[in-house]
Amino acid sequence: MLRRHREIFYGLLFGFGAAAIDTFIDSRTQGKSFWDVSLGMTLYRSCFVIFGFVLGWLLWRKNESERGFRSLQDQFQGIQKEMDAPITVIHAQTQLLLGRPGLQLPAEAQSGIRIIYEQSQKLQSIYRDNVPKSFGQP
């Protein structure tokens, strides 16, 4: 839990630290004990803790969406890597079937192979040209 919500923890730590520093400075300037504080000052210093918590929570929300995007990007790149070899194989095999001299295929089969070949060309084009640009890769 601490690992997942560390920004909130650091915000609370920041708030408690600010409250402790303020208490220390106030006790030194007034010549009082560190623990000798009034209720009003305790409520005032609790604002530091609340502010730290809110700051940590806002930072956690911002980073949570960034972590989600990075996770999605990693998943997409994994799918992209897995797709590369099958797309290339399908394209190469259909090209071999269409370009092989002396191979007599029925018209329907040849038409089907041609459609598969054209669709594999489109997939290769999308894969190589458009997809990397969408994630800011060279």
Task: Report on this structure.
This protein has one domain. α1 (6-30) packs antiparallel against α2 (39-99) and α2 (39-99) packs antiparallel against α3. The chain contains 3 helices and no strands. The protein is rod-shaped. The protein starts with 5 loop residues before the first helix and ends with a helix. The protein is 83% helix and 0% strand. The longest helix is centred in the middle third of the chain and has 61 residues, at 39-99. It has helices at 6-30, 39-99, 107-134. It is mostly helical and 138 residues long.
Q: Total strand count, please?
A: 0
Based on Cα principal axes, name the global outline: rod-shaped
**End-to-end separation:** 37 Å
Query: How many structural units, i.e. domains?
Result: 1
Q: What share of residues are in beta strands?
A: under 5%
Structural class: mainly alpha
Give the rounded overall mean pLDDT.
Answer: 84
Largest sheet: none
Gyration radius from CA atoms, angstroms? 32 Å
Please name the defining characteristics of this protein:
rod-shaped; mainly alpha; single chain; 0% strand
Topology:
Layout: H1 6-30, H2 39-99, H3 107-134
Helix pairs in contact: 1-2, 2-3
Could you give a short description of this structure?
With 138 residues, the protein is mainly alpha-helical. It is built from three helices and no strands. It has one domain.
